[in-house]
Amino acid sequence: MHSVKNALLIQVFHSFASGVLGVVIPLMMKERNIEVVLIGFVFASMPLIMQFGRMFFATLSDFFGRKPFFIANGFLGTVSSLVYCFAYTPMEFLFGKIAEGTKEGAIWAVNRAYLLERSRGDWRTLVILRTTVYLAYATGSLAAGFLMVSIFYEGTLLLCAFLGVLGVLFSITLVDDKKGEFDMQQALRFLDFRKKNRKFKIFLFLFFMMGLSFGFRSGYVIPYFLSASGFSAETVGLIVGVMILLAGLFSYLFSKCSRVKELILISGTAYSVLLTLLGFSPPALTAVLVILVGIVEGMNSIGQEGILSKICDKESYGTDIGLLMMGLHIGEAGSLALSGVLIAKGGFAASFIPAAALYSAFYMGTFMLYEEK
């Protein structure tokens, strides 16, 4: 139990820093006159880097244990924050994204698997993890604007670097078991997509569709959208923070829901409607709609975590989760790269409407395939 608490605390350090960076980096790039098209391409690199790192780390962790990758996450968190501290050009920000993406890949390769192993496969443990992520990320987002005003970009990024150091120190205390000697043949068997069942393959495609949807509204898009709508840095951080905070609250409230299948359909429909409205909203309504999107995202997360626990094999939790997330992040990278072009050509509606349409494919397919028992 002590290790589980420490793992969640490490997640708090990680997600708080990610929440700060999620607000600070888009505004920092905007202030330093990086064009929105280039911002989109820089942010698009992160899901791909994260996913390839995640698959590599997840496969190794199924043999060598999870602890080394928690340590790597903290170290890379410090490195990425220090790189951002001195970044002024798109290429320098890209280097920061490479380090940040590898950091994300390291922790997400092992956090779900570690907690599932410690809870004997109880999927509600994943809801606790998701809630922790939301709350810590929200707190970081809420703090970001005020940190930028009080200690400027450099001081804020140094704080994030320090949180990475704390992550390393707490990771060292984790209790972890080595799974066994590395077996290349077995590792390739875990990764062999052809040996997965039909339902797993369909869900991999559905996660790809979800990733396409997320890329059109994730990363830099919402903070940049709010800033372009006339909100100050403090207000952008406040709105994004409240959005994520409510996502965490509603993921917890609906974690006890026994009708997950119906929840997937209802929350997915609401998500698509809200994103469509957001594309045409006046500034006075923008903040309200963004916050409502956060509420619905919290509800969506319950179904997403339920899927992971039902279709992943116990002997290869880390690899199977990584394969599903591969579909998501490849899709997200593609749409993130395209989002900047669409925004530059047709405004934010040109990005939000595809996000709404693509997510409908995910939740309709999931509703038809998901089995409660």
How would you portray this structure in words?
The protein is mostly helical and 373 residues long. Helices cover 82% and strands 0% of the residues. The chain is built from 14 helices and no strands. The protein has helices at 2-31, 36-64, 67-85, 90-108, 111-118, 124-171, 184-191, 198-215, 221-228, 233-253, 260-278, 283-311, 317-346, 349-369. Helix 6 packs across helix 10. The longest helix has 48 residues, at 124-171. The mean pLDDT is 86.
- Residues in β-strands, percent: under 5%
What is the residue-mean pLDDT, rounded to a whole number? 86
Count of helical segments?
14
Cα end-to-end separation: 28 Å
Helix and strand composition category: mainly alpha
**Poorly predicted parts:** none
Oligomer: single chain
> Would you list the SSEs in sequence order as H and E?
HHHHHHHHHHHHHH
User: Radius of gyration from the CA trace?
Assistant: 19 Å
Fraction of residues in H or I helices: over 70%
Tell me the number of strands: 0
* Principal-axis shape: globular
- Main beta sheet: none
Which descriptors would you attach to this protein?
373 residues, mainly alpha, 14 helices, 82% helix, globular
Could you outline the blueprint of secondary structure elements for this entry?
Elements: H1 2-31, H2 36-64, H3 67-85, H4 90-108, H5 111-118, H6 124-171, H7 184-191, H8 198-215, H9 221-228, H10 233-253, H11 260-278, H12 283-311, H13 317-346, H14 349-369
Helix pairs in contact: 1-3, 1-6, 1-9, 1-10, 2-4, 2-13, 3-4, 3-6, 6-10, 6-12, 8-13, 8-14, 9-10, 10-12, 11-12, 11-14
